[in-house]
Amino acid sequence: MPQMGESIAEGTITKWYKKQGDRVERDELLFEISTDKVDTEIPSPAAGVLAEIRVGEGETVPINTVVGVIDGEGAGTPSQSTSSWTEKLPAVSPESTAAPKTPASPSRQARPTTAGGPPRSSPLVRRMARERNIDLSTVEGTAAGGRISKKDILTVLNTAETPTAVAPPPREAGAVPVETPPPAPAPAHAGRVHSEPMSVMRRSIAEHMMLSRRTSAHVSTVWEADMGSVEKVRREYGGRFEKEEGVKLTYMPFFVRAVLHGLKAYPILNSSVDGNNIVYKRDLNIGIAVALDRGLIVPVIHRADEKSFLGLQRVVDDLATRAREKKLRPEDVQGGTFTITNPGPYGALFGTPIINQPQVAILGVGAIHKRPVVVNDAIAVRSMIYLSLTFDHRIIDGAVADQFMAEVRKRLETWDERIL
User: Are strands 361-375 and 338-341 parallel, antiparallel or unpaired?
Assistant: First the structure.
């Protein structure tokens, strides 16, 4: 099991492309894994016969765990090939390959620390604990080697929010006891149903969304913009752009450019909250939400303000393609400072998206529709769009959010940048 990022401690086998006994060539796709950060396909490190599959589909194991055995000679039994395969593996401490503990309810007793230091956890977990005032020494880690995972923190939060049962008041002497009827059972669905477990990606999305709702004070503001200037540029340069540069001219680079303009004017929207501190990010790393058939993923354009318009279009195409082909690297989905999500192609007018933690704002882009609007006291037909900004009201006031949106709208409505 490869380590797909510095903070990744485990991975789940979601699919084997080969069966036990199949021939496999070097760099041929062997299996697919899913982690908290990314889904990806893993190529075979060697040519030979897949002599043994040790970790089945749906199983989660720590990094560096041997998940399969390849017999490089194409002969011999699995037990014979195992020794030769494992001799080539790097040395791994017993702690990192220990089997995950059975999940248990969170304990408030102090847990052992690692070599006299703080409990083992990822940077994400430590930030979550810091923001929710949770003492990690009181959290029972259920991941590999006693490591505290994001799931452990969410379990503590859910337990803290569950109301405790209230004891009935003592009965006065001589009072007639009243029998309290038992609670009615949840109604069972009488129709036909189909139940299946959530995928690893879906569980991760669910946890991330619930964490965001608990963390940030979500407020949304909706604006409309006239996309006439952008439409004119696309009509004028679209064909030439695709012919000369080899990429289709989409709307996304225009939105990214407009957002960058707004972030430079109001940098608090490119920040994060760390306890009682506001951390302003100097790099403008724009996340672009990509819808997949199995969920949603947000690859990141790092230092987007340093790229040309053509460079933005190329990187948008590249990230979206690799996201759908499961070829993203861990660094492709890390470090985002502001996110753009675009449900417009599906026909949505606007939505109120959930903030992508630890960011403090997200822009939702609706569909572009031609409709009648009033321009200089006259009715005209314009290509209009709704833009919705969800922001964290802990540090961003409504006035600042609207001033940011005014800059974004102005940039789109008065587009004057050359794209070629």
Answer: parallel
| Secondary structure E strands in 207-330 | 218-226, 271-274, 277-280, 286-288, 290-292, 295-297, 300-301
Contact indicator for 351, 218 with CB cutoff of 8 Å: no
Q: Are 7 and 123 in contact (CB under 8 A)?
A: yes
Q: Residue 355: its pLDDT value, please?
A: 96
CB-CB neighbours of 337 under 10 Å: 27
Q: What is the CA radius of gyration of the chain?
A: 26
Q: Which position among 261, 305, 393, 402 bears the catalytic label?
A: 393
Model pLDDT, residue 124: 66
**Amino acid letter, residue 82:** T
Non-local (6+) Cβ contacts of 349 within 8 A are 366, 367, 369, 386
- The pair of structure tokens assigned to 86 is 């494992």
pTM, two decimal places: 0.67
Return the domain boundaries, the chain: 10-87, 100-157+200-215, 218-413
Buried b (16+ CB within 10 A) or exposed e, 259-282: bbbbbeebebbbbbbeeeeeeebe
Q: Give the Cβ contact number of residue 47 at 10 Å.
A: 14
Helix ranges (DSSP H) in 91-199: 123-131, 150-161
Tokens encoding 279: 């951390």
Question: pLDDT digits over 372-397, tens only?
Answer: 999 999 999 999 999 999 999 999 99
Q: Model confidence over 145-203: pLDDT tens digits?
A: 677 877 787 788 777 655 555 555 555 555 555 555 666 665 556 688 888 888 877 88
Annotated catalytic residue 393: yes
Closest CA to 403 of 263, 288, 308: 263
Provide the CATH topology of domain 218-413. Answer: Chloramphenicol Acetyltransferase (3.30.559)
Residues in contact with 29: Cβ distance below 8 Å, sequence separation at least 6, in sequence order:
17, 41, 42, 43, 44
- Structure tokens belonging to residue 367: 């569909």
Active site annotation includes 392: no
Q: How far apart are CA 329 and CA 60, in angstroms?
A: 20
Catalytic residue of the set 27, 274, 283, 397 = 397
Q: Strand pairing partners for 13?
A: 33
- Rounded-to-integer distance, Cα 9 and Cα 143, Å: 8
φ, ψ dihedrals at 240, nearest 5°:
-65, -40
User: Hey, what CATH topology would domain 10-87 get?
Assistant: OB fold (Dihydrolipoamide Acetyltransferase, E2P) (2.40.50)
